[in-house]
Amino acid sequence: GLVVLVLISVAAVAFWRCRALGFTGLVFFLVLAPSSSVVPLTTQPLAEHRMYLPLAAILVLMVATVHRYTRKVWIFVTPVAMVFAILTVRRTADYRSEARLWEVTIAQRPENARAHASLAGVRARSGHWLESLPRYEAALRLQPDYADAQNDYALALAHSGRTPDALRHHEIAWRLKPDDPDIRANLGLALVAAGQPAAAIPHLEAIVNRQPNQPVAHNNLGD
Fold first, then answer.
1. Cα 149 to Cα 127: distance, rounded to the nearest angstrom
2. What pLDDT digit, counting tens, does each position of 94-128 carry?
């Protein structure tokens, strides 16, 4: 925060003393501001794509600086552009699949619970339930109060034949996030699967009362 504050101050002072130099600095922060301070992107604190447009100001400053000392700007810009083009191609390879992107994120930020849970979700959606379990467990070790991960882990446990463990984690997820209708519905269905339909009824009734126009909720309660 102090580094950013200093840079903003430098840009403001530069704008007062040298409009061209300060303009690029202020444009950088003004373009970056909507996605950094106005829009609350709490799940993407380090999303690189937020830097694409602000960096245009830095590129203008770089080219203008080179142009001031030599008219042959291309001699400097061309090799730099080639280097960054190669880096871009290498980075683009990380986007070839959702799983790969989360794997790279985990390699760089192994303490990121959301990354582990998201990679587990990719595995689960492709039907690899057993492969998803270690990732969910890693996410919950890092963040035990991660309600959505608790819920998804419970679903993966159920598909892996571990019904009692699934029920326990469904109950944890519901305690962490009692107002989430999907989590409560999953708890009701888990109780049914565990042979406790009477205990499931209050949960499924609550979902029907909250979502009276949802046919799946009525069907679950009817069953």
1. 17
2. 888 999 999 999 999 999 999 999 999 999 999 99
The DSSP symbol for 42 reads T
Region of residue 127 (left: phi > 0; alpha: psi -120 to 50; beta: else): left
Cβ partners under 8 Å of residue 106, min gap 6 = 112, 115, 116, 119
The pLDDT tens digits of the residues spanning 20-30 come to 788 888 899 88
pLDDT band with cut points at 50, 70 and 90 for residue 43: low
Question: What's the mean pLDDT when you consider all of the chain?
Answer: 90
Q: In the predicted model, is pLDDT for residue 68 greater than 90? A: no
What's the CA gap between 37 and 45, in Å, rounded?
A: 11
45: pLDDT strictly greater than 60: no
181 token code pair: 């209708």
User: Alpha-carbon torsion 2, 36, 113, 184, what sign?
Assistant: positive
Q: How many residues does the chain have?
A: 223
